[in-house]
Amino acid sequence: MDCSKHEPKEPQRFPLRLVRLLKGKDDRIQCEFLDGTGGTTEYKALSYACGSTEKPREIEIDSRKIPVTENLYLALQHLRCADDARPFWIDAFCTHEETPQERLQQLSSIKHIFQSAKQVVVWLGVDEDDSALAMEYAAGLDVDKYMEEFSTQNHLLSPDGPLADKSCFYNGSVEMGEKESLVKAATALVSRPWLRFVCNLQEAVACADTIVVCGKHAISWDRYFSLVWLLTPRSSWDFPDWIDSDELDLCSSVAYMVQQQRQIHVPAHASRRPTTYKYTLNLGHILRDTMACSASDPRDKIHAALSLSDYNMASLKVDFTTPWQVVYTIVAQRLYESGSSHIIRQAGRCKQLDRTIPSWVPDWRYGTRFPIPTSVTYAVGGAPISWHTPVKIRQVSKLDDFRDPAPTYKTQGGKRKPFPLLSLELSCIMQDYVVFASGICEEWVEGPPVLGSGTSLWLAQLAEQCSRFVLAYLPAQYINMEFVSEAFARTLVANMTHENHVVATEVAMETAYGEWTKWLKAGAQGPVPDFHKAALISGIFRTNEFCVTARGYMCLVPGPVKLGDFVGIFNGVWMPLAFRNVQREEKEDGKKEKEDGKKEKEDGKKEKEGGKNIKKDSKRFHEILGEVYIHGMMTSEAGVLIEHYKCKTGGDEVRFLDDGCPVVMFHLAPEAKPVMRGGKVMVSSLSDSYQRVLPTLGKRPILFV
Fold first, then answer.
1. CB 357, CB 328: distance < 8 Å
2. Which DSSP helix (H) or strand (E) runs through 557?
3. DSSP labels for 14-81?
4. What pLDDT was estimated at residue 651?
5. What is the SS3 assignment for 259?
6. In angstroms, rounded to a whole number, what is the distance separating the alpha carbons of residues 642 and 469?
């Protein structure tokens, strides 16, 4: 096996307990404890998937029998030498985690332990599913070629689909011929549980000499990653039907993140970094990339991400005596305040499985649901690099706490304490509410993406229902001057092709939509249309739904969005958001109603003074639901229109948004000149285009809880 040269390290200055794996050939595994403090003893560090918590096996350490999991027993059996003893660091034997403080101390030393190891051994498991075939193939790969491709063609960094020329097993044909057995074996190998455990990732990043072992075969990490690279297709539609593409996509994305981190942390890989490559150690990005990974404790994800990031760990320590909900809220607050606005894309009630955290806090325990296809050219709220205005996160007062009752947790002292309620204030520059929502196809949600005849007919009916509404209620021309039927077709697929490109202006998506509905009505027989491939990626009628707002915006929104919910664009936020008003239950009834009556009269007087009541009305709390696609508003049109027309949110508009309206309304503005920037027409000014949505534009603070 060829491994990178081990870099000499400074002697450790932290307590270190090792185990010496004694020689042997039979089923009896014997070890002895060894003091490794001081760095004089060379050792290997073992990284493995814990798997089941059951411990049906036993080994001996210093003549004492210790129960172990099946996977760890098999790892020790395969790594044991027949004629020599080997020092190892193995977490199951070398750590003490009886208290939260001890757990934090042990986790804090993991990075140093693996950096100081002579070699890191990644144990994938025993030989099965033709893993030997995949390992032998990987051992002969041209590592330098694939590492160079990865460094220069990372698909996360280019808007033009740089994977078009990458090396891969697939050529777009379902028939793989002789490669089929190899691809199946390689897929099974890469999909093993090791990549799914977040704590394993920092272990693979720390040491230059990292090898991957499966059964009796061992290869370097770079050869293992080269196999992952070859399994990644140029297009998601190049996957054969007999491959679980979702599982492989997940494992590949995690492996990519590990490889990126190795090219940052491991000196031996620095020469492979091209000067144009934008590496990141951003804590928010790492938490996003590891959302689908497993962890024995939700707080482990934060600690593992901190160890991989450039964030100052001294200023943000993971407290294992505090509930994970509080830890996640504190981390999110720090990220927002440091300019990481992108984490809002992982937040929202549609993506959370626990409502005790604020809606603006990502639930990093699980993978993101209800994704909306995006392009790197999108920047609906302006430049996403930093906030246009300072972030305001405040503690909600007890008087304004609408939770009844407020959820609580037990402190170490045994007292019940309410979870904190913090509000995030964003500057909304466009807001409208939903008056039509398509719903989703329940049969398709629960079943596989492959359509049956009944499901395909139901999808066709849903699509036609939406089309009839659009043609009946919206003007013939959409706000961006497209025919409304063309704009409708583009909205269904978020204006993206199945190859993740923005649909070209000259492409007739209305025609493609018509061919798709015919194919659905025919029972989804024959070749799959490209429009259906794009629809699968957009999630339309499966996880996301089509909606129309009161002023005529056509949108793609998460499935749980319902009539009366809002869509909006916010300063510094890359994607539009769907959000919902939180009705605060008043704690006092009789007196409060009288006070509200007096305030309404006072507010009526204030309207005549220039809408000074806007600030009061805008203090109503809202919850983020998820990100949204708004057709015709994805490339900073809102900011351009506000700047040109000096749009402001007036008192009438506030009442319109707060009170709601049961019918579609179109407020037409007087005709004006085209909006120009740099000699280029940014927005058409015909009276039946963007001008009818001008009342939705203007800055207004929104409080999210």
1. yes
2. strand 554-558
3. S--EEEEE---SSS--EEEEEE-TTS-S--EEEEE----S---EEEEETTEEEEE-HHHHHHHHHH--
4. 66
5. helix
6. 29
What is the enclosing helix (H) or strand (E) of 325?
A: helix 324-337
**Selection from 38, 48, 3 nearest residue 18 by Cα:** 38
User: Among positive and negative, which fits the CA dihedral 648, 649, 651, 656?
Assistant: positive
Name the pLDDT band for 444 (thresholds 50, 70, 90): low
**Which residue intervals of 237-323 are DSSP H helices?**
245-265, 283-289, 298-308
Q: What does the alpha-carbon distance between residue 594 and residue 596 come to, in Å, rounded to a whole number?
A: 5
Confidence of residue 620 (pLDDT cuts 50, 70, 90): confident
Beta bridge partners of 32: 20
Euclidean distance between CA atoms 163 and 156, whole angstroms: 10
Q: State how far Cα 674 lies from the chain centre.
A: 38
Per-residue DSSP letter, 674? P
What is the per-residue pLDDT across 108-146, written as a single tens digit (0 to 9) for each? 778 888 888 999 999 999 999 999 999 999 999 998 888
Q: Cβ atoms within 10 A of the Cβ of 663, count?
A: 7
**Chain mean position to CA 459:** 27
Structure token digits, residue 41: 């003893």
Alpha helices for 58-213 (secondary structure H): 70-79, 91-94, 100-116, 131-139, 143-152, 179-190, 198-206
- Output the six-digit token pair for 403: 């939770």
**394 within 8 A of 423, measured Cβ to Cβ:** yes
Amino acid in the structure at residue 28: R
Q: Which of 553, 372, 540 is CA-nearest to residue 465?
A: 540
Q: Judging by DSSP bridges, how do beta strands 86-89 and 44-48 pair with one another?
A: parallel
Q: Yes or no: say if 183 and 244 are a contact pair by the CB < 8 Å rule.
A: no
The residue ranking higher by pLDDT, 364 or 289, is: 364
Q: pTM for the full model?
A: 0.83
**In the structure encoding, which two tokens stand for residue 155, read together?**
């698909």
The per-residue DSSP string of 591-647 comes to HHHHHHHHHHHHHHHHHTTTSTTHHHHTTSEEEEEEE-EETT-SSSHHHHHHHHHT-
The mean pLDDT of 551-564, rounded to a whole number, is 92
Instruction: Give the whole-angstrom CA distance, residue 334 versus residue 698.
Output: 28
What is the C-alpha separation between 286 and 282, in angstroms, rounded? 6
Pick the closest to residue 291 from 341, 264, 254, 337 (CA basis): 254
Three-state DSSP string of 500-527: CCECCCCCCHHHHHHHHHHHHHCCCCCC
Calpha distance 401→414 (Å, rounded): 24
- What confidence tens digit (pLDDT) does each residue in 289-331 have? 888 888 888 988 888 888 888 776 556 777 778 899 999 999 9
Q: State the angle between helix axes of 245-265 and 198-206 in degrees (0 to 180), rounded to the nearest 10.
A: 40
Query: Residue 596 CA to chain centroid, in angstroms?
Result: 42
The residues that bridge with 384 in the sheet, in sequence order, are none
Element containing residue 566 per DSSP (H, E): strand 566-570
- Cα separation of 401 and 511, whole Å? 52
DSSP-assigned letter for residue 496: B
User: What tens digit of pLDDT does each residue of 219-267 get?
Assistant: 999 999 999 999 888 776 667 777 777 778 778 888 888 888 787 766 5
| Contact indicator for 194, 48 with CB cutoff of 8 Å | yes
Task: Outline where DSSP puts E strands in 270-418.
Answer: 392-395, 408-410, 416-418
| Whole-number Cα distances in Å, 593 to 463, 587, 616, 658 | 45, 11, 17, 18
Whether the per-residue pLDDT at 415 is higher than 90: the answer is no
Angstrom CA distances, 394 to 70, 152, 362, 614, 705, stand at 49, 43, 18, 20, 10
Chain centroid offset of residue 513 CA: 29
Which helix or strand (DSSP H or E) is residue 376 part of?
none
